[in-house]
């Protein structure tokens, strides 16, 4: 950070900026601020009062590139006429004599949620790309395919503390306030009251809104982990992850947006380098579905354009070439070609040797009435089948996609074999003895709401 900023907002703010930055190592002790335009008194009031009331929020904002560019609280939080999410109670602070600038004359209505639509005023390209992505549209995708939700196999609270934390809630108002059942939430597909999808803070936490943070793998790892999509574990195990951990002090994570250069700023890629950041001929994208040639999270691996619940509208070969361009900043053609050959082979073997035979026998059991179709997860074979594709089947495919041998084999195909054999043993036994499968009579904590959100699907 070698830039110098000149302050012209107010003497008071300078003092606070000094104290806000003291202690941060990567910044000069004195950081001045140039406001390119006049901040109206209402905007100064936000800053002054919040500096005292919520110093953490103030300090984050003061350290952001937004503050350097003169983007203030008002630019993001000021409510527009007709907004449904206005923080009605906030008005009361404007009659609090003990708070800085707590006077009626400075009042403007504000909203707490700041949505992709709000950011799109200044960042239209990022918002548009994001809106097409699976990140933004994940609530729709979940409700189209997920048995936990569609059959009410878990409780509403299990979803709120689990699923919707990562995927996003449908924001609602209750008694003039944001409904605590839906807020706070920064899931990737949050449906906002202005109709926009997502929350940019999933990767750029407020109020720093930093590209540096979004470029680091830990940011993605908040959601991309665990038994069913262990991308952060896979990454940490790969050579790329090893190098990241060994050399990250030398990486320049803070280079200007769009100018993060392989070889110069980093020597091995992070999640963002491969999936989002610009590199070589490839521009930055906020649509993480770009650069993908397979749907390796689906039960049967298909091309993204053939994924029925949410066809990508892309051509898999074009997308693969984009990803290859990224690899070729640091690798030769043969290295990259051979990697994809192995990956394709892993996908084919998973589909043919594991998934299709398991699916065929499951269908047979339903047909013969030996398994009950009315509920999923309440019979052992359904759980086994689910874990075969949803857990180890994904780990095998994704381990192969992202160079993690332990996930491809020990947590992947090895466990697929194990699961498959047990699954087949029980399935065959039921068929041979013509016995109905045991049903768990007291499946715990079911009953979550099974109505698809009308805000997305309309009235059913
Ligand atoms: C006179 C003091 C004061 C002023 C001026 C003020 N705020 Fe606040 N604001 C507060 C306090 C106090 C809270 C509540 C903090 C808490 O929950 O403890 C708050 C809460 C908020 C919230 C969260 C609201 C919610 O419902 O969760 C936002 C967003 C916010 N302020 C933004 C602004 C913006 C933008 C401005 C300028 C237009 C502004 N504030 C001006 C004192 C003030
Ligand atoms: C670049 C846009 C932007 C600017 C500038 C901005 N905010 Fe925010 N603010 C956000 C976003 C995004 C959130 C998270 C809300 C959400 O998830 O929709 C947020 C949340 C908040 C909250 C609630 C957070 C909490 O943890 O309770 C408060 C209070 C708040 N902002 C105050 C301020 C104040 C005061 C300023 C100016 C010093 C400011 N904001 C500047 C975008 C902004
Ligand atoms: C009023 C215009 C405006 C709004 C609204 C706005 N931004 Fe920005 N944003 C800017 C400007 C200008 C810059 C460039 C600052 C610079 O390069 O110094 C910027 C830079 C950024 C950066 C790059 C920061 C970095 O580390 O280089 C991110 C990320 C970002 N904005 C995200 C957001 C998000 C998310 C929102 C909505 C919550 C938002 N912005 C709302 C104007 C805006
Ligand atoms: C820790 C965060 C997290 C939690 C908790 C979580 N998910 Fe996910 N979910 C993800 C991620 C990340 C993916 C993307 C997987 C991939 O592409 O590898 C995903 C994928 C999915 C998919 C597949 C989407 C597709 O395009 O095929 C569905 C459906 C889904 N989740 C539903 C749920 C449900 C229902 C719950 C709760 C019962 C849940 N998730 C809990 C993060 C989470
Ligand atoms: C899944 C994580 C993620 C989400 C969610 C996300 N971003 Fe980003 N964003 C990134 C990454 C990674 C970069 C850095 C690209 C690079 O290396 O230059 C970035 C960069 C940016 C930049 C700098 C300019 C550029 O395009 O490189 C802006 C502005 C920005 N994001 C705005 C937004 C807005 C607005 C939203 C919400 C619509 C959003 N981001 C949501 C990951 C994310
Ligand atoms: C707040 C949680 C969250 C964060 C943070 C997050 N993701 Fe995701 N991501 C998800 C969920 C949920 C899905 C599944 C969406 C679906 O398919 O319905 C997903 C899907 C994906 C996909 C698969 C897209 C497809 O078309 O199949 C990729 C690639 C991806 N994320 C990359 C990233 C990267 C890179 C980052 C960090 C820069 C990141 N994500 C950060 C939750 C998150
Ligand atoms: C070396 C580049 C590289 C790195 C680093 C990387 N990925 Fe990947 N990722 C890939 C490739 C290649 C694929 C398979 C793409 C395809 O389908 O052609 C993939 C697949 C995925 C998928 C599955 C998408 C689907 O629908 O099948 C997700 C999700 C994902 N990556 C997320 C992440 C996350 C999160 C990180 C960091 C923890 C990460 N990736 C790190 C290259 C990378
Ligand atoms: C920023 C540079 C960079 C990018 C981009 C990059 N890699 Fe790498 N990759 C490396 C480095 C450095 C190594 C370590 C080579 C060694 O072992 O000396 C490596 C190692 C590998 C390995 C060997 C892993 C092992 O354990 O032996 C494979 C396979 C690989 N990369 C494939 C890819 C693919 C495929 C892509 C694109 C999806 C990609 N890389 C993108 C720098 C990069």
Automatic annotation (TrEMBL):
Pfam families for the chain: Cytochrome_C554 (PF13435), Multi-haem_cyto (PF13447)
Domain of life: Bacteria
Signal peptide: 1-24
Keywords: Signal
Entry keyword annotation includes Signal: yes
Alphabetical list of SUPFAM superfamilies matching this protein: Multiheme cytochromes
Gene3D superfamilies the record matches: Hydroxylamine Oxidoreductase, Chain A, domain 1, Hydroxylamine Oxidoreductase, Chain A, domain 2
Keyword Signal: yes
Record InterPro entries: Cyt_c-552/4, Multihaem_cyt_sf, Multiheme_Cytochr_ET
GO molecular function annotations of the record: oxidoreductase activity
Every Cytochrome c-552/4 domain range: 119-178
Protein's name according to its UniProt entry: Hydroxylamine oxidoreductase
Organism: Pseudodesulfovibrio profundus
